[in-house]
Amino acid sequence: MCRGAYRRLLGLLPADFRRQYRDEMCSVVEEHWRVVRRQVGMLGALRFWARQAFAVVVAAIESRRRRPPAMAYEASLLRLATVQTGDGGGSMDGLVQDLRYAMRTLLKRPGFALVTAATLGLGIGASTTIFSAVHAVLFRALPYGDVDRLVAVYHEDIQTGERGSGLSAANARDLMEHADSLTAVAVADPYSLDLEVEGRAMSLRTWSVSEGFFEIATVTPYLGRTFAANEYVGDSEPVVLVGYRSWLNRFGADRELVGRTLRLDGRPVTVVGVLPPEFKLPDEAELWMPRAAQSHDEANRAADYMMGIARLAPGSTRAQAGAEVERIAASLSEAYPRTNTTTTFRLVPLREVLFGDIRAPLLVLSGAVGFVLLITCANVAGLMLARGTDRRREYALRGDLGASTGRLVRHITIDSLFLATIGCALGIGLAYAGIQVIRSLGPDHLPRIDEIGVDGTVLAFAVAVAGLSALLSGLAPSLRFSRPDLRGTLTDGSRGATPGRAALALRNAIVVAEVGAAMVLLVGAGLLSKSFVTLLDEDLGFNPTNRLALQVFAYGYGEDNGQTRAQFVNHAID
Amino acid sequence: MRGSLRGVYIGYNPIVFHSIYGIFLVRQPVDELLPLTHVVYHVLLSLAPEPRHGYGIIKNVSECTGGRLELEAGTLYAAIRRLRNDGLIEETPAPADTDARRRYYDLTGLGRVVLRAESERLAELVELARAARVLTVPSGGEN
Fold first, then answer.
1. Contact yes or no for A21 and B81 at CB 8 A
2. Pure H helices in chain B
3. Cα separations (Å) of A436 from A127, A129, A133, A432?
4. Cβ atoms within 10 A of the Cβ of A532, count?
5. Under the phi-then-psi rule, with left for phi > 0, alpha for psi from -120 to 50, and beta for the rest, what region is A162?
6. Helix (H) or strand (E) holding A352
7. Are the CB atoms for A499 and A493 separated by under 8 Å?
8. pLDDT bracket for residue A84 (50, 70, 90)
9. In A, which residues are within 8 Å of B100 by CB distance?
10. Contacting residues of B for A62, CB less than 8 Å apart
11. Is B89 at the interface with chain A, CB within 8 A?
12. d(CA A219, CA A217)
């Protein structure tokens, strides 16, 4: 593999150098490698090949520099002429030639290359950063089986059309019994369990989930198992599942935790498993416990504070299921006139429930970054145009020597691709830094913020953006300089640097148009960022300054007695 | 007949030129070529006793310098190319009992003169260093 790469790397050398020594160099390196390989480890091998590669790059640059500069230009033109008449410019050889030519011309103007690559790097870096956030939050596959068939179930008021905050346990049970288009319906009840550690109690966020919840979510536990059917019964032995993060932070990633007994709410509870890291349903908590049907469920049919979740049965659509649950709601309102008269059910895709409020701001932000990327492309196109105007004479001469329009376009595109490659590397570096900034900014606004990172998809995105910006920024110069009517430029003024009047007017027009476009894009980007800020600062309807929310859990362990608790709360308020 | 003669005469072939006129006219070209880079000097030095192939040069230089100078193929062939263009070394037929696929290189007359001139220059430097009492050992160990 190294040998093949080495041979390809030798393509950087000037043609005569390659012709004379390529095969010999390959066999010498191979011979050297055979000797070295026996003496060095992995690191030594890496060092060997890195040194060999570096030496080739140095040789390629040095052997070019040693050529007298006056000859170089004519020589390269002559070489181009032979290639263009020789193979028509379609083969890989021509492509390598273009690549080497692009490298050479860019090395000659390092300032231009640096500015262009840095500009591209900024644009690519910004868009990659935002993409990684959008990707992690909105598009990455959720670990809940076929997530598009998962729905959240809500109460809805028939008269006002207002959506409730969830589903009640009794209604969930009736839906489960009667809806054929849903395989299962379950509720998650927000709860809190007190963990006793060395005499002190700590309140742990818990979801108390009804039977079928984990089957609907199709979760495979990280350790142990989920709840068995008999554990959802009221008088069964109490069990609990631990969330991954809680397992890491609170229980020290102890693999022996499964099977152990914790003291929760004053009674012993057995840990049966640990949930996988990405499982956050309905959202992140420390514990999940089975919820048995309770005596007051029936009376609390209107209590819709629990999260209802269901999976569509195979073959049924959300519309069919929606119609069916409405029919069931109608029959329930007859059966339970006290609680269900105005209640119907609404199915909402789970994805929308989990990311609904962050979706709009994130998409708006993506739009803003898209605009920034366009500005970048416009700027780079401007830079390339300016340089192309300097190289007008060369393009004209190439045309006269027989280069086809396609060949010239390819040459310009490769130039910008080469710059974009450097820009891409810079951009990925910037994205790494940018993600750190996002993470340190506001975890309140972004769900799954800890999952934002550079992965294969994000890298692919960066490369695609780089390619796209190369094409976009190469477009203007391509259109401008590949036209066959450029022939005149050879006679128009003796040197390429002093353009005729027509060319000057065109260049001015390009600059004016470019500045105009950049301004429009800048204003657009500004407006978009403004609306993003507005979206995040929604009016709460009350003044939150100097107000405090406090949650108190008062349990009477052993002798649970409503009156004692009421007394405690009253006492606390006084 | 006349055409081919003109071809030989007009085309500047450094090897032919220096091997014919080199011995008498070398002073000026040699001065232009000095000082040599240490890579070039070591390559010429390793070819002084006998012709070698590319890997042979790498091995010899490494042995002579006690492993302090490990030439990479890229560095070596950049030097070989330059030395051939300048007419200091030339390709020579492989010795009878060796791998015929390998290319062997040998010093030209000019190459030998240049190597000698550079060595003399270095020796003068060493003398200067001795005179300045930089080197305490009068002879032997140092080079």
1. yes
2. 2-10, 14-25, 27-33, 38-47, 54-64, 73-85, 109-131
3. 15, 10, 11, 7
4. 18
5. beta
6. helix A350-390
7. yes
8. very low
9. none
10. 78
11. no
12. 6
Phi, psi of B104 (to 5 degrees): -105, 145
Q: Could you tell me the end-to-end alpha-carbon distance of chain A, in angstroms, rounded to an integer?
A: 78
Phi, psi of A185 (to 5 degrees): -130, 135
Query: CB-CB: which of A27, A32, A66 is closest to B58?
Result: A32
- Three-state DSSP at B104 gives strand
| Three-state secondary structure call for residue A182 | strand
Q: What 8-state DSSP symbol labels residue A306? A: B
Q: What is the average per-residue pLDDT within A205-219?
A: 89
Query: Mind listing the pLDDT tens digit for each residue in A113-136?
Result: 888 889 889 888 988 888 888 887
3-state secondary structure A416-449: HHHHHHHHHHHHHHHHHHHHHHHHHHCCCCCCCH
In percent, how much of chain A has pLDDT > 90?
A: 9
CA A338 centroid distance within chain? 49
- Binary contact (A17, B80; C-beta < 8 A): no
pLDDT higher than 50, residue A318: yes
Q: Which residues have C-beta within 8 Å of that of residue B99, sequence separation ≥ 6?
A: none
Give the integer Cα–Cα distance in Å for A231 and A240.
Answer: 10
Answer yes or no: do A31 and B55 touch at CB < 8 A. Answer: yes
Instruction: Count other C-beta atoms under 10 Å from residue A424's C-beta.
Output: 26
A225: DSSP letter: -
**If we measure between CA atoms, which residue out of A146, A186, A191 comes closest to residue A168?**
A186
- What is the Cα Rg of chain A in Å? 34
In this structure, the strands spanning A150-157 and A223-224 are unpaired
Is the ipTM higher than 0.85? The answer is: no
Name residue, tokens 């014919």: B20
- List the single residue in B55, B74, B82 with the smallest CB-CB distance to A52: B74
CB contact under 8 A, A29 and B73: yes
Q: What's the DSSP call for residue A238?
A: P
Average pLDDT over residues B105-109: 92
Is B95:B109 a contact under the CB 8 Å cutoff?
no
Q: Round to whole Å and give the CA distance between A340 and A326.
A: 12
Pairing verdict, β A343-349 and A150-157 = antiparallel
Q: Hey, are the CB atoms on B74 and A59 less than 8 Å from each other?
A: yes
The DSSP H or E segment spanning A150 is strand A150-157
Which chain B residue has the Cα nearest residue A61? B78
Residue of A21, A56, A63, A65 to mutate for B, most B C-beta atoms under 10 A: A21
What's the alpha-carbon Rg for chain B, to the nearest Å? Answer: 18
Query: pLDDT digit string (tens) for A545-574?
Result: 787 877 666 655 545 566 777 777 788 777
Residue A545's Cβ-count burial label (10 Å; 0-12, 13-18, 19+) is exposed
Distance from CA of B66 to the nearest CA of A (A): 16
Find out whether A207 and A291 touch, Cβ atoms under 8 Å.
no
Is A50 in the B-facing interface, judged by CB distances under 8 Å? no
CA separation for the pair A261, A267 (Å, rounded): 9
Burial B76-95 (b: 16+ CB within 10 A, else e): bbbbbbbbbebbbbbeeeee
Q: Residue B105 — very low, low, confident or very high, per pLDDT cuts 50/70/90? A: very high
Whole-Å CA distances, A69 to A105, A106, A195, A398, B122? 13, 15, 79, 19, 32
The verdict on B76 touching A (C-beta cutoff 8 Å) is: yes
